[in-house]
Known about the structure:
The complex is a heterodimer.
Chain A: H1 4-19, E1 24-28, H2 35-40, E2 44-48, H3 54-59, H4 70-81, E3 94-98, H5 102-114, E4 119-122, H6 130-151, H7 157-175, H8 184-197, H9 202-214, E5 224-230, H10 239-245, E6 248-254, H11 256-262, H12 277-287, H13 298-317, E7 321-328, H14 332-347, E8 352-357, H15 364-377
Parallel strand pairs in A: 1-2, 1-3, 3-4, 5-6, 5-7, 7-8
Helix pairs in contact in A: 4-5, 6-12, 7-12, 13-14
Chain B: H1 2-8, H2 12-22, H3 24-34, E1 39-41, H4 48-52, E2 56-58, H5 70-82, H6 84-96, H7 100-130, H8 139-151, E3 157-161, H9 166-178, E4 183-187, H10 197-216, H11 222-246, E5 251-252, H12 256-269, H13 277-297, E6 301-302, E7 308-312, H14 322-328, E8 332-334, H15 337-340, H16 355-371, H17 375-388, E9 393-399, H18 409-420, E10 424-429, H19 436-448
Parallel strand pairs in B: 1-2, 1-3, 3-4, 7-8, 7-9, 9-10
Antiparallel strand pairs in B: 5-6
Amino acid sequence: MDDSNLLSDFTLFLKEKKQEGIKIIAYLSHDNIPEELIDSAGFFPLKLIFGGNDELMDASHDYLPPSMCAFAQSCIGLFSIKPNYYKFLELVDYIIVSNHCVSDICVSEIISKYFNIPRLNFYVPYTMNENSLKYYKLELQDFRNQLESIIGRKISDEDIHNSILKFNNFKKKLLEINELEMSGSEKLKLIHKSMLFGPDFLNDLESLIQQFKDNPQPVSNTSKDVLLTGCSIFINDNMIDLIEEGGGNIVFFDTWIGNHYYSQVVENNLIDVKKDPLDLLVLRFKNNIYGDHSVPDFLEQKVSFILKYSENHAKNRGRKLGVINHIIKFCDHISLMSSFLKDTLQEKGVQVLNLERDYSRANRGQLSTRIEAYLEMMK
Amino acid sequence: MSLIADEIVTFSSVLRIAYNLLNGRNYLKRKKFREKEKLVAITLPFSDLAFAAGTVPVLPIRMHKFEISQYLNYLGSASSIFGWKAVSNFLSFIKNLGINEISKIIDDIIESVIVTINEKFNAMYDVGIEKGISSDFCYGLKSLAGMYFTKGQNVDACLNVTIRCSAYNKYLESLKSIHEGPKQIWIDIPPRNLGNTVELLTDNISNALNEFEKLTGNNITDNDLRAHFKIGNQVKRSYKNIVYDISASDFYPCNPATFSEIMALLSITFQDYNSNAVRYRDNIVSLEKEMRERIRKGIGMDVSKMPRIFVTPMFGGWEPKTHEILYELGGRALYADWELLKFLEEIPTGSHTNPSEEYARFLMRATETGIGCDNDKLTDSYLRMATDLNADGIIFFQLFGCHSISNCYAMLREKVRRELEIPITAITFNKIGDNVEQVKTRLGAFMEMFKF
């Protein structure tokens, strides 16, 4: 998928932001970063959701051993090389060091240290219980303090409420993508652009979704329906092309770039300006049961979600659903659970392809063969 | 190896620790089936609560049957009648008579202990891969998975303590998928110490203790916790004394390769105290005494001219030939991972203290200033340790597939060169015995730097 136009547009967009005096806070995007807080402080939250290639991965080896998550390697490569379409990375003012996984910590820290970008800290507890929620709130408060010390003023509760509402509405609109009749690649383009530009894209998103609703673009009946789980497909990654060329169509993105992001909404009736807005962010964290960061129930939740989705899909569409578990090489979370996920789902009759890969070009042929063989088997 | 074995046999405490490590299976079977005690799987030095709860913590590899040298078995049996000291004295006596066959037997005993442990770790690594753990993960994780796949069904519970390594946390989550039976008891250590974090962690510890109470049916009192912490503190004190007073000194109670071998043995056994805290305390306290006694008598070796090489990390897997090679090259290997990670800090036990809260502080310190929430903190720990040991150089083991610690090498190298101005090199490691020749070459080149 060639995303050069998207990246060009985004560069212009970000330059405009900078001209307006808005500072950019970048982070290795994950589901527990409170982008609403960043927004409420008047910053632009830049999600680092860009795929890699050989050159980017190689460029990271001055800082890291090669046995490291390919996405993490590529993030360092982007800051090290700053290829043409990524010149906007020069506009980044701060980077968040967080612990979605240990590679997240390591890479953000390297970007901060070696590319002279001041860091902000935001850490997340590992389990999900009452004390974790309390700890998460401490981190939110600390993060708010860090932002306030940069801007030199307090962030009002009202501003945070407004940002929560803004992102909430934006995500609700994005949720409609799940039901659109269109190819997976078109959906992904829409998701990528939305997540990159954020709520500023809402008006365009609304009209695009309306267009697709008015003019559905059904995918050929010969293609196989696929649910994508595991690691996200990032911008400028050809994975979705390989799946579609192999005869598959992703009907649901059960990944962070996809449903995990935009399903994290708070009911509007809970957004009460008289209450502490940080509690709403805590609630969102609590409801995030499908995220891969937390232990010990990730696998159970994931299995139960996929089974339910698969059953509904068969019932509503009368079609079989395949599951591709996308594993970026050396990803701690997805890789370690992959064999358990596959075994458990296959026992229940859902066919799973554990598709492990990095961003090297040399893999393309092998990946195509595996995808084609899997889709063939789905007949 | 001969020289190493020759030295080691005069430390009866080392024989005891080695025997208890390898003979764990029989001990644990007795505990489980005859004494009806609960076995709790642990990894890393997180055994305290399990001991305080009256359960039997075990690093799962110890449930395996080891090929113990039959002579060590005899020694074990003899010791139960005559006591270990008498057996050790007897061995020294017959060895001093110069009876070659006997010397050979003693050498075999010690060599077999080291070889046996390493072979079993490697076997567990293979099991981990066979059972579906990607070969991309580090040696430690694959070995842990192998241990649990093969022996996890025998434990009653797993004590799972989260750390910053995401692969490790996911491994802990996977335990309930591997074996459904054992109860999973969790302690989440928050990544940073903000606000009332210690209070939250204290509550997490209390919740874990409640789970232990459900497991055993017994109440766990503050005094139970204090009583175990006191034992643990004695273990840590002796361990620390050995690290600082002896390993950093200029006169060793034995040759440096032997010394490193003992330190490696302590590193493995410190995780579960060989499932018996009192016995382990007694052994490590007498080990320290034996070492001091030898030094006092002038028995041992002047190592003042041998560069101190801090070899780390080794707890997740390292090449055990390292210390022998370094010794042959004129250096000495210092191992001190647990001290570096702040696991040798004592826990206050005064009657006015809240032991759960003190344990929370202990865990928080290890998290904050030991392994650290980021590589900046972690590399500071390496610098602190190298300084405290007065190290002349650092060998850093970069484990293939380790994303938590190995990644800090570039930052560490820079800091060491800037702040300590001592040589440092990295050795990549995948599996024990895989690249010994390469290790030799790298260490040879490294040690050349100390010849001028």
